[in-house]
């Protein structure tokens, strides 16, 4: 509850006035202007030792990741993020600097998307750092994009290169909010999600919800330099990293072939890539014309 | 994000269909019907060893407390709770039973108020249990009740007896959602909050936000049997427990004397009690006609 938000006065002094916020801290709840369309809600909790290693990466990057991961979920529905709340379990062993750095990181990302942090709950305890963010958003006039709308024949796109996010991208990514809105205005997005589990796994989620299959073009999947770097020592190919690593926080989505053609012609942002097509059933990877089964873990036997 | 909500299928099978939820689990966000009026948002995080002791109280009561504490904040604004999300950090040392019991407890309270759990994030880790709930609500047509609207001369009421919640009430309370709505319909609630820090502290919050003072009538403050029980061994009086213990999750609020008279005549629920009046400045306790300063901690020198 905002009344307990230790740093709220400090934060408030640094937060631009926001027309959507009708009541702020100092009350038991925040009160926001009601959204005009569907209200989107998502929540993600990050824990030290699981989602980040605080002593290695620093609190500011943890704050950034916590906010960005939530906004990425709003982006995945092609929504406009409107507000966020933040709950913290801060380790007793740290001082107030930890909270301040965390909030700076949370605000780095929230400010970039004009998202007010409207409330929270700041606690300290004997355990390790836990950061829980809930983000609210609003669907656009075209409605929220779900995972279940893909059809056989759809073209599959990804918003940017994949793999190797463990080398840093998983902390420092920019959620694809603007890109999702741009795409949603330009074409009919039939199914979309953000890549947190890995391309194969998240594409598989779309296939399961849409009751269809997919074939990925192994030569077309864009691969990061980080995936290539990891590959040198990991015993896995760069493509395997791109298919399975996860926490890329890019968007994978499907559109009709007509809309796909339009996207390739207009190319609304340079990292957009067509990476495959939907089929009736199964999850497949095609390389040099040869199609082989693709596990949702990203594993391909012959690579 | 709902897609990662391990128990969502299990939960969903036990959740009545809810007209406010337009999209459910299986997508990156939940999508809800937009509220007609101000959207209320609150969040509370509970941690093992701080807010409860899991090994002593069991997971079901922890789940109940986590949901009830959040709905109590919605009640404090006289709002209607509409949805909740739940994020969990589950200790590796426990099995799936812990999550199941937690969700049963969360649902015990959510169901009682027709609140759908629309999403969440279920994690396991090496640390202790952390439960973070975010509740959404909607203001009524009379608007949300804030803490800052009390005026000198207002009468101060409390929704029920106070003190000694550590003996069990802090886990098993019913959030005063229905009572708040009833009161809000009957009279103009000028300032209100729920009692989590303790009557003195929370009344002090109202005074600070309203820039006024308050005098409590020591003989009128309703006291629980638990406060009397604690008093036998604590070295503190039952009244001191009622003033300072906290986690009562009753409502303290102010109304005009006219509305106060109406409440005493109509008495919408039996535990309602008039406990004092607002004054220009200071926080005071009056016993047998003698007024003495009251610390926000609940401490009174002469008691």
UniProtKB/TrEMBL annotation, chains A, B:
<feature type="binding site">
    <location>
        <position position="28"/>
    </location>
    <ligand>
        <name>Mg(2+) 4</name>
    </ligand>
</feature>
<feature type="binding site">
    <location>
        <position position="197"/>
    </location>
    <ligand>
        <name>Mg(2+) 5</name>
    </ligand>
</feature>
<dbReference type="InterPro" id="IPR036921">
    <property type="entry name" value="PurM-like_N_sf"/>
</dbReference>
<feature type="binding site">
    <location>
        <position position="44"/>
    </location>
    <ligand>
        <name>Mg(2+) 2</name>
    </ligand>
</feature>
<keyword id="KW-0808">Transferase</keyword>
<feature type="binding site">
    <location>
        <position position="42"/>
    </location>
    <ligand>
        <name>Mg(2+) 4</name>
    </ligand>
</feature>
<feature type="binding site">
    <location>
        <position position="73"/>
    </location>
    <ligand>
        <name>Mg(2+) 4</name>
    </ligand>
</feature>
<feature type="binding site">
    <location>
        <position position="194"/>
    </location>
    <ligand>
        <name>Mg(2+) 3</name>
    </ligand>
</feature>
<comment type="function">
    <text>Catalyzes the ATP-dependent phosphorylation of thiamine-monophosphate (TMP) to form thiamine-pyrophosphate (TPP), the active form of vitamin B1.</text>
</comment>
<dbReference type="GO" id="GO:0009229">
    <property type="term" value="P:thiamine diphosphate biosynthetic process"/>
</dbReference>
<dbReference type="InterPro" id="IPR010918">
    <property type="entry name" value="PurM-like_C_dom"/>
</dbReference>
<dbReference type="GO" id="GO:0009030">
    <property type="term" value="F:thiamine-phosphate kinase activity"/>
</dbReference>
<comment type="similarity">
    <text>Belongs to the thiamine-monophosphate kinase family.</text>
</comment>
<feature type="binding site">
    <location>
        <position position="28"/>
    </location>
    <ligand>
        <name>Mg(2+) 3</name>
    </ligand>
</feature>
<dbReference type="GO" id="GO:0005524">
    <property type="term" value="F:ATP binding"/>
</dbReference>
<keyword id="KW-0067">ATP-binding</keyword>
<feature type="binding site">
    <location>
        <begin position="120"/>
        <end position="121"/>
    </location>
    <ligand>
        <name>ATP</name>
    </ligand>
</feature>
<feature type="binding site">
    <location>
        <position position="73"/>
    </location>
    <ligand>
        <name>Mg(2+) 3</name>
    </ligand>
</feature>
<keyword id="KW-0784">Thiamine biosynthesis</keyword>
<keyword id="KW-0547">Nucleotide-binding</keyword>
<dbReference type="Pfam" id="PF00586">
    <property type="entry name" value="AIRS"/>
</dbReference>
<dbReference type="Pfam" id="PF02769">
    <property type="entry name" value="AIRS_C"/>
</dbReference>
<keyword id="KW-0418">Kinase</keyword>
<keyword id="KW-0460">Magnesium</keyword>
<keyword id="KW-0479">Metal-binding</keyword>
<dbReference type="InterPro" id="IPR016188">
    <property type="entry name" value="PurM-like_N"/>
</dbReference>
<feature type="binding site">
    <location>
        <position position="247"/>
    </location>
    <ligand>
        <name>substrate</name>
    </ligand>
</feature>
<feature type="binding site">
    <location>
        <position position="51"/>
    </location>
    <ligand>
        <name>substrate</name>
    </ligand>
</feature>
<feature type="binding site">
    <location>
        <position position="299"/>
    </location>
    <ligand>
        <name>substrate</name>
    </ligand>
</feature>
<feature type="binding site">
    <location>
        <position position="73"/>
    </location>
    <ligand>
        <name>Mg(2+) 2</name>
    </ligand>
</feature>
<feature type="binding site">
    <location>
        <position position="121"/>
    </location>
    <ligand>
        <name>Mg(2+) 1</name>
    </ligand>
</feature>
<comment type="pathway">
    <text>Cofactor biosynthesis; thiamine diphosphate biosynthesis; thiamine diphosphate from thiamine phosphate: step 1/1.</text>
</comment>
<dbReference type="GO" id="GO:0009228">
    <property type="term" value="P:thiamine biosynthetic process"/>
</dbReference>
<feature type="binding site">
    <location>
        <position position="147"/>
    </location>
    <ligand>
        <name>ATP</name>
    </ligand>
</feature>
<dbReference type="GO" id="GO:0000287">
    <property type="term" value="F:magnesium ion binding"/>
</dbReference>
<feature type="binding site">
    <location>
        <position position="43"/>
    </location>
    <ligand>
        <name>Mg(2+) 1</name>
    </ligand>
</feature>
<feature type="domain" description="PurM-like C-terminal">
    <location>
        <begin position="167"/>
        <end position="281"/>
    </location>
</feature>
<feature type="domain" description="PurM-like N-terminal">
    <location>
        <begin position="26"/>
        <end position="138"/>
    </location>
</feature>
<protein>
    <recommendedName>
        <fullName>Thiamine-monophosphate kinase</fullName>
        <ecNumber>2.7.4.16</ecNumber>
    </recommendedName>
</protein>
<feature type="binding site">
    <location>
        <position position="44"/>
    </location>
    <ligand>
        <name>Mg(2+) 1</name>
    </ligand>
</feature>
<feature type="binding site">
    <location>
        <position position="196"/>
    </location>
    <ligand>
        <name>ATP</name>
    </ligand>
</feature>
<dbReference type="InterPro" id="IPR006283">
    <property type="entry name" value="ThiL-like"/>
</dbReference>
């Amino acid at each position: 509850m905002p009344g307990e938000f230790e740093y709220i006065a400090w934060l408030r002094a640094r937060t631009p006035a926001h027309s959507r916020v009708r009541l702020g801290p100092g009350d038991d709840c925040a009160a926001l202007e009601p959204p005009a369309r569907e209200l989107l809600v998502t929540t993600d909790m990050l824990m030290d030792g699981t989602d980040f290693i605080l002593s290695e990466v620093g609190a500011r990057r943890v704050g950034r990741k916590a906010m960005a991961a939530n906004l990425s979920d709003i982006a995945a529905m092609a929504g406009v993020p409107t507000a966020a709340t933040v709950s913290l379990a801060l380790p007793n062993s740290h001082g107030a600097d930890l909270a301040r750095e965390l909030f700076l990181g949370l605000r780095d990302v929230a400010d970039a998307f004009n998202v007010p942090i409207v409330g929270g709950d700041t606690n300290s305890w004997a355990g390790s750092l836990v950061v829980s963010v809930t983000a609210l958003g609003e669907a656009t006039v075209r409605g929220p994009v779900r995972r279940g709308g893909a059809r056989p024949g759809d073209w599959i796109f990804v918003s940017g290169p994949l793999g190797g996010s463990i080398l840093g991208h998983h902390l420092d990514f920019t959620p694809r909010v603007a890109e999702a809105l741009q795409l949603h205005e330009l074409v009919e997005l039939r199914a979309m999600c953000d890549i947190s589990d890995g391309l194969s796994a998240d594409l598989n989620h779309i296939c399961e919800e849409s009751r269809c299959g997919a074939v990925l073009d192994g030569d077309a999947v864009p691969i990061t330099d980080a995936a290539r770097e990891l590959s040198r020592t990991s015993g896995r190919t760069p493509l395997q990293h791109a298919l399975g690593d996860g926490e890329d926080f890019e968007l994978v989505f499907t559109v009709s072939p007509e809309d796909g053609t339009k996207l390739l012609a207009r190319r609304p942002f340079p990292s957009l890539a067509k990476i495959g097509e939907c089929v009736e059933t199964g999850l497949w990877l095609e390389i040099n014309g040869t199609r082989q089964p693709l596990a949702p873990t990203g594993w391909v036997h012959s690579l």
